[in-house]
Amino acid sequence: MTRIEEEFCRRTPRSAERARAAEAVMPGGDTRAAAHHTPYPLTLEHGQGPFVWDVDGHRYIDLIGNYTSLVHGHAYPPIVEVLRATSARGTAWAARCDAQIELAALLVERVASVDKIRFTNSGTEAAMLAMHIARVATGRRKILMARYGYHGSQEDTELGLVGQEGPNTYLAEFGNAEAFERALAEHGSEIACVLLEPVMGSAGIVAAPPGFLAAVCAAARREGALFILDEVICFRLAVGGAQERYGVTPDLTLFGKIIGGGLPVGAVGGREDLLAMTDPAKGMMFVSGTFNGNPLTTAAGVVSVRELTAARIAAMEDRATALRVGLEQAAAAVGMPFSVNQAGSLLNLFFTATCPPATIVRTDYERMRRFHLAAMNHGLFFAPRGLIAMSTVMTDAVIDEVLVRAQAAFADVAAEPE
Ligand code: PMP
């Protein structure tokens, strides 16, 4: 064990105890691969604003906000209030609720390519539904996605995350429009849809280069395939989503995370004629879900989306830039190779001199692992892979505190033998 790891274990005996109890009843003691890490993940006890507390009583600045979904931080008072009022009147029923219409209307109003919306309970389900729509619409079976893209935990895209093609899945390199055009020219007659993240999330916050999304979109249309944009993470990048920021008009869009205000959520939005296939009265698909568009999720989602204004999006981006620059300076001060990808309020850290291309295969794995544990030892909480997301409740003072704590974490990593 490294000194950093020893310190982590010394500080968190109650989390260690919870890890043992969890291992007895869940494989690997966990239920969520992305948040898992060695020696064991923390057990958290509560969150407030930009902070979380673990079961050993330590406070952490939360720089990940449940993987970007808590855009207004934890227990945001207007969301707590709407959840309290809503839950007192019942949590779900087998009929519409007003908040569902309101959230759908808000998304239709904000996102230019979205005529109609269909709710699901996760981003994974949204991806499954969009692929299903594409298959019914085109009569084709296969999908084309970016190597190392992530569209939830489901069979047809899961292999793509680790860089392998599957029976229903073709891959091409993110950012390389010709590679997508080639794949479409070669297999176009089999491809129902092209599925892309405008900014690769799991692969390290890699933004689409200029012209890439529009070129792939045009190639997909030429071959009669749908162009689907996964905005589960990126919707936070502009009032009209990443598609507004990067200037592309998809046929279908996947939503998740922030549109549920912290509760489980997903949605597919897009062209009238495509969404019409899910119309229960006239459509050809049977699309249901006990908790689709439920009162709690949609009420919280309305507050979350409505309060994400252009001014707040810009303020989060400025703070993300300040944090990136401060972290780069802190790494330089200890002479450590370090780089950061940034897209708006999203960052991904790398312990290499320059950011790698979109990939989940890291050459800096051990250093990243040590820095992640060291950062927790100094009261910072973020994704093990180095993903960081700003929230609207992070102030300049919070960013200053993050930098002081990060400096201590860099010093600990620099002090460890290789
Ligand atoms: N697409 C992207 C781009 C994501 O980042 C995620 C989740 N991190 C998903 C889809 C899946 O969403 P969920 O975890 O809600 O199923």
Summary of the model, kept short:
With 418 residues, the chain is an alpha/beta fold. Helices cover 41% and strands 16% of the residues. The chain folds into two domains: 3-71 and 309-415, Aspartate Aminotransferase, domain 1 (Alpha-Beta Complex), CATH 3.90.1150.10; 77-306, Aspartate Aminotransferase, domain 2 (3-Layer(aba) Sandwich), CATH 3.40.640.
Bound molecules: 4'-deoxy-4'-aminopyridoxal-5'-phosphate
User: How far apart lie the N and C ends?
Assistant: 13 Å
Alpha-carbon Rg, integer: 21 Å
CATH homologous superfamily placement of the largest domain = Type I PLP-dependent aspartate aminotransferase-like (Major domain)
What are its keywords?
single chain, 418 residues, alpha/beta, Aspartate Aminotransferase, domain 2, 7-stranded mixed beta sheet, 4-stranded mixed beta sheet, 15 helices, 41% helix, globular, binds 4'-deoxy-4'-aminopyridoxal-5'-phosphate
What does this structure look like?
- With 418 residues, this protein is an alpha/beta fold.
- The strands form four sheets. The chain has a seven-stranded mixed beta sheet with strand order 4-12-11-10-7-5-6, with helices on both faces. It has a four-stranded mixed beta sheet with strand order 1-2-3-15. The chain has a three-stranded antiparallel beta sheet with strand order 13-14-16.
- Helix 5 runs parallel beside helix 12, helix 13 runs parallel beside helix 15 and helix 14 crosses helix 15.
- The protein starts with a helix and ends with a helix.
